[in-house]
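quick one, 100 residues, struct below
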Amino acid sequence: MLRLRSLIADLDRLYSGQRVLLVSHDAVILLFRYILEGLTERELLDIAAASAILNASVTRFVRPGGTGPWQLESYNVADHLTSEGVQVTEHAGDTNVHPR
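---
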């Protein structure tokens, strides 16, 4: 979590107002949501349990005006694949993410 927070701070410092593309695995995408949206742990686990993140899907955060809080614009979108007739796949992870 600390590494992601540091990355976000570096992006703010080095690329303020610019577009940045990050590519990562599903768990990291969920952690970005946790940090940037200020989710609770329970909210994050509910999202993870509700659906798997599709392989090669796009999640997009934006800052209207280039500064201020991040806003989730799209999550887990695979239209770029389906529009080209590509089969959309997902990692069959464990949907039982809530603590016992």
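The longest strand covers residues 71-77.
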